[in-house]
Amino acid sequence: MIIRRVLLIVFCFSNLFTKGQNDIQISSDFPGGNIVFNKISVDTVWLKPDLSFTKGDWFYWYFKISGISGKNIIFKFDQNNVFAKYGPAYSINNDFTWKWYGENRIANNSFSFSFSEQDTIAFFSVAFPYTEKNLNDFLGNLKNKKLLKSDTLCFSPENRVIEKIIIPSLNAEPKHKVLITARHHACEMMANYVLEGIIESILNDVNLTSLRNQVEFMIIPFIDKDGVENGEQGKNRIPRDHNRDYDGKSIHNSTAAIRKLIPDWSENKLKIALDIHCPTLNGRYNENIYNVGQSTYEIGKNQIIFSKFLEKNSIGELKLFHENYLPFGENWNTDKNYSQGMSFSRWASSLEGISIATTIEFPYSNVSGIMVTKDNSRVFGKTIAYSINDYFVEILKQ
Fold first, then answer.
1. Distances (CA, A) of 19 to 33, 58, 114
2. How far apart are CA 396 and CA 398, in angstroms?
3. pTM, two decimal places
4. pLDDT at 91
5. Any domain includes 301
6. What are the pLDDT digits (tens) for 165-181?
7. Structural domain span for residue 195
8. Sequential DSSP letters for 55-77
């Protein structure tokens, strides 16, 4: 079990109104928490992401701070590229209502925050956190939840349940099956809000009745479950990234279980395998939603069709534009990127009967100048559900 940091800092704070010592506590000792405290001086706290089990740098962080009433505190990060376009995400006095701090609030890898006298606790993160508790809350309040089955894919090395959610077809025997995964990289939390939108749409949208009748879905929301709960980066994990663990002998419980289970579960009916990711924080291929093209010609051709359906069905604030489709062989999407092992989508593209195996990259904070929220992320999940339906109706003629 990863060792957590609970840091009690005696913070000497003085201004025109307050003098004396004030105790500030900075902690990552909770599900999803991640921070390294370096030092404190006057009104400035130096921090950085915890990169345990990570090769190189990455940017995920999430911490709690208390003892803040009436203070103005500067948070300075000793690492570059740890903020998305709209600054840090924050929640004051609880960890349920999250907001972006705002554009142009970051200077020299730091931000300041003024707390009111009523503020007792605050949470800050690179984006909106999502752990097992969020999933359980969502499923508990989900309309028509009786139509899905929550089951266990396997247990993690730390004995946590790795969930698999089955949405059976309403017909006794499904014509087709769809597999959707997320959190191969533990830090990519925004993917789960998209998943919520997919699930809710499949279960409840009247225009998707035919899809519910004929297609069975399996959804695995946390591939790297221990990483999610422990607050780890997951990306470039040592000794092996979960999304490079689909050839040779898989070293992770979840990937090994998927490779064993899915070919039998499929019964040659699996037509779509979709893996939802979040990219890095800034730049064209990190602030647009896009499909990652496969090297296999037939799969790549079908991905282009699916990408165009996603553009057509992007009726919410967050839109996918097919022009951002990333073909194999361009930018980072080359053989070199997969030198450490096979990804989920490459593995899925080899399954018998598969028509589409694709990765969708969904940004943390900014999509083409539009701020990402929980709600519009869920709406994009509806876009995916409708695009799956269109693919079955128009391409597979079902």
1. 31, 39, 17
2. 6
3. 0.94
4. 97
5. yes
6. 999 999 889 999 999 99
7. 132-395
8. SS-----EEEEES-TT-EEEEEE
